[in-house]
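Hello forum,

I keep getting stuck at the same step: I have a sequence, I want structure tokens, and every attempt I make locally crashes halfway through. Rather than fight my setup again tonight, could one of you with a working pipeline run this one for me? It's a single chain of 152 residues.
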Amino acid sequence: MTQSRRVNNFFREFFSGIRNHPYLIVNLVFAGVILTIMVYSGIFSPDKNNYPVICIHEKLTGLPCFSCGLSHSFSLIIRGRLEEAYQWNIYGMRVFLFFVSQLLMRIFFSVSYCRNEHSREWLIWYDIAGSVLILAIAFYPFFRQLVLALFQ
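Reply #2:
Ran it on my machine without issues. Output:
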């Protein structure tokens, strides 16, 4: 079997059988959301400050929250302006890397799920464990600030 035929068979199996596999649907939805975030960050310019989504917390209280500046930070990271991104939000790179790693994991685990019928349950558990670990590492500063704010 040629390489192109294998690729065609893979995509045919993937798209025809997706309705029977909620795990694949969830992965596609997550990947779509992440790609939307990346496109949003690439379209809207940090130089023009033309972001359609504003920080509701800052609008209501006049004080910045710990996620303020993430849109600017993501846009600057996509453009390779890392020092400026850090100035807009010191956690921007952590969160950006979380989304990039999740996008790669959605692709990897979806492909592995389709190719390995006998280990699907284990793949899902590995996916959950890895995602929780990456979430905890990426968002630890946010969780810490939230806990401190709640119990002060």
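Residues 3-150 form one domain. If your local run keeps crashing, start a new thread with the error log.
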